[in-house]
Specification:
Elements (H helix, E strand, L loop, with lengths): L12 E5 L16 H16 L2 E5 L19 H8 L3 E4 L5 H8 L6 E4 L6 H5 L2 H8 L4 E4 L24 E3 L1 H14 L6 E5 L8 H7 L5 E4 L4 H7 L3 E2 L9 H14 L2 E3 L3 E5 L8 E5 L2 E2 L4 E5 L1 H12 L3 E5 L12 H15 L3 E4 L2 H9 L8 E2 L3 H10 L3 H7 L1
Parallel strand pairs: 1-2, 1-5, 2-4, 3-4, 5-6, 7-8, 7-15, 8-10, 9-13, 15-16, 16-17
Antiparallel strand pairs: 11-12, 11-14
The protein binds adenosine monophosphate (AMP).
Adenosine monophosphate binds next to β14.
Length: 397
């Protein structure tokens, strides 16, 4: 894939779609700089070549035009400190003054544009708006994986206003796509997908796609109970999507036909309440008492899943095995994380992606002990479902 490495930016100006959608405190200070830090290598490469940069991003979900709460001016000093270069700011992203500011940039200078979503046209993927954004520069770089599943003006539509040789991916995007590709298209068998989290309905397409790639699919978390009920088990008041029982059955049938092993938990830690202080005990998963709910996988399932994980050569993990935010129900998720680390040490390629499994791997300080932690929640899931993303296609086509 074509990255910033293949372009010499000397005396060129690049407009870069970054993901600076960072959390701000009440005093408008950036409370987590991860996303800004992630973009720095791409920006440094361009500046070191002798180019200049126009940065564009969204921040939050402004409802109706400009709103101080969502202004990117609050992050200027943070970007500047992390980059080690002064960052200028334009209080509009497409007006005449914004275009003037970008046209006056000298080599080594950086301009940050105001929040793209202050214009409704951004999320609508409006062509005229995208064309105006394209006027900022002669090269377009997309480094915002977190929004690459959106066909917005700045993430996809803008690309059509640049010749193929003048558009490319930044290092964040390239890293994500290359690592997901290792799992989806270059996986070594046995490939095990571990899918958890709350809802089956969110993960149906993913499970279907993964059946074409994986040898084993482990299902944990709240979604497992819909499968257990579909197979005739009693699940008490555990999480269940009754309108998905047929879907769950169909998925199990399909797996059988395709020769994919589906692992459903055999036991659970059940509680009489959705609370860490609730009474809790071990139970078989197919016979949970009325009034009790499963909040974690049990010891037997944890051990069985661990064996499968440790014998895998490729692992994708999306979604926790239980309510890992509560200490009494974190064991299944925690043990899965440590088993994935062990598999990594034994030479497996392991990719963790999707908000809550990333939160889990961070909770146990294991992010550096797996092969790759994806930064994109929705983008990663959609990549697996669709095999590509609008933001990726826009540059590759
Ligand atoms: P998702 O966003 O679909 O990946 O779901 C993640 C959430 O599912 C986490 O906040 C978990 O606490 C929750 N979760 C996992 N297992 C269960 C369960 N057995 N019952 C209820 N919620 C669960």
């Amino acid at each position: 894939m074509k990255t910033v490495t293949s372009i010499n930016f000397l005396n060129k100006r690049a407009v870069i779609r970054v993901d600076f959608n960072v959390p701000l405190s009440d005093a408008f200070e950036v409370t987590d700089t991860t996303r800004i830090k992630a973009a720095i290598p791409t920006l440094k490469k361009i500046l070191n070549d002798g180019g200049s940069i126009v940065l564009m991003s969204h921040l939050g979900r402004p409802k109706d035009g400009p709103d101080n709460k969502y202004s990117l001016k609050h992050i200027v000093s943070t970007v500047s400190n992390l980059l080690g270069t002064e960052v200028k700011f334009s209080d509009d992203c497409i007006d005449e003054n914004a275009i003037k500011l970008s046209s006056e940039l000298k080599a080594g200078e950086v301009l940050l544009l105001e929040n793209l979503r202050f214009y409704k046209e951004e999320e609508k993927g409006d062509e005229a708006f995208a064309e105006k954004l394209s006027k900022h520069a002669n090269i377009y770089v997309n480094d915002a994986f977190g929004t690459a599943h959106r066909a917005h003006a700045s993430t996809a539509v803008i690309a059509k206003f640049f010749e193929p040789e003048n558009k490319c991916f930044g290092f964040v995007m390239a890293g994500e796509v290359e690592n997901i590709d290792k799992v989806l298209n270059q996986s070594q068998q046995p490939f095990t997908a571990i899918i958890g989290g709350a809802k089956v309905s969110d993960k149906i397409l993913i499970i279907e796609q993964l059946m074409n790639k994986a040898k084993n699919i482990i299902i944990g978390g709240g979604m497992a109970f819909t499968f257990v009920k579909a197979m005739g088990g009693k699940i008490g008041k555990s999480l269940c999507e009754d309108d998905r029982l047929e879907t769950a059955k169909n998925l199990l049938e399909k797996a059988k036909i395709k020769g994919v092993n589906i692992y459903i938990p055999t036991d659970a830690i059940v509680a009489d309440n959705f609370s860490n202080d609730a009474n809790h005990k071990a139970s078989t998963i197919t016979n949970i008492e009325e009034g009790w709910m499963g909040l974690d996988i049990g010891a037997e399932s944890t051990k069985q899943f661990g064996e499968v994980i440790k014998n895998s050569k490729t692992i994708l993990w999306n979604g926790p095995m239980g309510v890992f935010e509560m200490s009494n129900f974190e064991n299944g998720t925690k043990q899965a994380a440590f088993d994935i680390v062990e598999a990594t040490k034994n030479g497996a390629f392991t990719l963790i992606g999707g908000g809550d499994s990333v939160a889990a791997i961070n909770k146990y300080n294991l992010a550096k002990e797996v092969s790759y932690v994806s930064t994109g929640g929705g983008a990663l899931l959609e990549y697996i479902e669709q095999g590509s993303l609008p933001g990726v296609k826009a540059i590759e086509n």
